[in-house]
Amino acid sequence: MSAAKRVQQWATFARTWHIFDCKWQDPYESANIIKKYLMGQHKPIYHPLNDCGDVVVCINSREIALRGDEWRKRAYFHHTGYPGGASWTLAWELHNKDPTMIIKKAVYRAMKGNLQRRHTMQRLFIYHEENVPEDIMKNVSSQIRQSRLVPTRLDHIPEEEVKQYPKVMDYPKDYVLK
Amino acid sequence: MSAKNLFLNSGFVRAPLQNGVGRYVCQLQRIVLKFCKSHGGSRGMRDFIEQDLVDFAKHHPGVVVYLKPRRHRSPVIVGEYLNGDRVWMNVHNKTHEEITKWIEVLRTQQGDIASVRLRKYQYTDHPSIQGPWTPFTFKDPELNTAELPSSKFGANNRLPMSATEQLRLMFEKQKISTKTEDLKIAE
Hints:
The structure holds two protein chains of two kinds. Chain A contains eight helices and six strands. Chain A is of the alpha/beta class. In chain A, a hairpin with a 6-residue loop joins strand 3 (about 75-80) and strand 4. Chain A starts with a helix and ends in a 14-residue tail after the last helix. Chain B is α/β, with parallel strands linked by helices. A four-stranded mixed β-sheet of chain B has the order 3-2-4-5, with helices on one face. The longest helix of chain B has 24 residues, at about 165-185. The interface of A and B includes residues 43, 49, 140 and 144 of A. Chain B: InterPro entries: Ribosomal_mL43, Ribosomal_mL43/mS25/NADH_DH, Thioredoxin-like_sf.
């Protein structure tokens, strides 16, 4: 293999580091997106036998959004292996204990259960807030688009912008706002 | 399990040394016809030898033909090729016409191609003119200087326009049109 070909090989199989912002995202929906990047399925060179998976850094995993009343209804099962060792943890309890666990389990479940899955999971980094260690952040060169729009709170919009926003009608002067 | 553990060897469609582009070199070097002089299973083979073998040898001087009579054994054709392949073919109870066709197949093929699993049905020495794909092809160059994470590259940009946004745009348009009307009246 000539020097030029060798460099071509490095370039084609180079690992890219992606960052994904979990803020207000459905973990089970975004797991399907993250999975593709972890396994390399977004690349035209993808093949199950070649090692072309990328690294994904998830941030803000504390601020994920579950659908409906799933925080109260969804249970995570664990069994210690001893008799009577079964336990069911509700999603809100699990999220209080470890805010990275729900997104981790969602990505793990989204992938097919084979020998490669645990190695692919090693390429997933999850942080519950926006602060990521410097040595990880310096590798990041790409961002994965979210699936849902992050809503903006009214008190986070500058006051001037709110005042200029078109109004359908004005409240009467004697109207008492709660 | 991966493909290397399969019994069949894998390969690509190849023509040895661009055979036939300038001149054609017959890849079959030697053919041995084994048959029995008395058994019925060699009937077709004996017919071929009586009627066609001399013509075959005359037309294809590059191919060495051997005959090997052997008592009470089924007829067999063995071809040997330039690349070292050896093809063994049983022609028991085959008719004269069938054997003529099979010998033609052996003569025109370029090795033991039947025992190769083709990985692809096409082959090229120059797979890409533009160069192979890398993670950096088709990337937005703005990403090079962007401060990640940013909402510009992270937000979903494929959603349809919201009703609120549509209303706001209609309002902006209305403001512009009223302004122009005022101007017209002034004129």
